[in-house]
Known about the structure:
The structure holds two protein chains of two kinds. Chain A is built from eleven helices and no strands.
Amino acid sequence: MGWQAFRISVEVTAVATVLVVVVGTAAGLLLARVRFFGVQLVEALLMLPLVLPPSVVGYYLLRFLGAGGPVEALLKVNVVFTWAAAVFASAVVALPLMVQAAKTAIRGVDPVLENAARTLGSSEAAVFFRVTLPLARRGLIAGTVLSAARALGEFGATLMVAGNRPGHTQTLPLFVYDAVQNQQYGLVNLVVGLLTGFGLICFIVIGRLEPGRTK
Amino acid sequence: MDDRSGMRTRFALVFAGTLLAAWSFVVSCGGGAPTESPQASRPSPSVELVVSAASDLSPVLAELGPLLKESAGITFAANLGSTGQLMEQIVAGARVDVFLAASSTAVEQLDDKGLLVPGSARLYARGRLVMWTREDAGLKVDTIADLAGPDVKRISIANPDHAPYGEAAREALESAGLWDRLQDKIVPAENVRQAFQFAESGNVDVGLVALSLVATGGGTYTLVSEELYGPIHQTLAIIATSTHQEQAAQFVAFLTGSRGREILLKHGFVLPEED
């Protein structure tokens, strides 16, 4: 029972983190390097899940993914109460952390170095992957770890949009919620300890990635 | 010193004064209420009962509220949830006056713990389980076996661990030999009202819910045969720690009286025989 939740949590977190890293890094690059009209609005929208109540995020996701929403109309499938919805909820709440980390890390890369690569004939893709990305890697890794931790810990929006289905969408946070109600405190303590330990490790890893620290 | 700092000081004083006035207002209103004068305590119109009610009663209580206020001057705040969760709250010491459960076992457990006013437990209605679908879903769910059909992709039920209607749903599916087969379709909800909301929003195809939630609304429903699950004996009681037992008794009298029975009947409950 707890193992199922563990497996689902690992899978959901892994997929959500991959999505968040790709989308978040792209968004961070955009915000750090491109000036366009409405840039602050775009950033504010990306950051919103950080401050909105989980119920509000959950409601938006229900409207977006659920019956009568755009995703159902497009894909002809309603993913509410499925594993995919759990991935989506985790990704949406973790995305702001990755965007911020990526933006800050990429801003910290000296544009002179990028321009030097350009004058030497590198394509934009090569500049990004061979200059910007390696130089921003500490911040990006820290953002990835933080996003993964947040994705693993997602509860409120997941409950609303993916439901609490043991074996299908019940992640560890939802498992804890159920197990407390069923007064299975032994299991609760085990999972709570696991999640707390993971959170601590994440922050220690992030601390070690801070600039100015020797490896 | 100069004009600006003087203005700032004055502003700070006005601001502090406003805060103080607001604070004393709040304190005098909030703090004054419990120390009522003795002669005013008799009718005490300011009492608001806390009624912990199984979520299948939400339409009943919505209708009962204004009538009760009008006829007896009693107001209440409904705390809706699954019977099991509400019971846990009471065990944990929640300040509740009346408990309207959707089962008899929860009330019996509280009685065993000595948390009820002795003799206040009482059967007030029998609930029934239905299979509900949206009109626009175009699904034909006439018997419980239809739930196994390919058109039914997801089915919501209340959480069988702590919600009586969920327990009844599980029992009915088990009796029909479908429980194991339907595991991949089942979406458990916190309580039966949420199970209905899942179906109403169109995110599940069928909701196994309380008749009382759907009797007067849209959609289509089929009663689940009562041979498939144990009777849902909805039982109420007054909580021992209630400080408004007189009003709580009035509430119970109203719910189990002719007007309350009328409302319960309208929402599809089966009523116990008159005493």
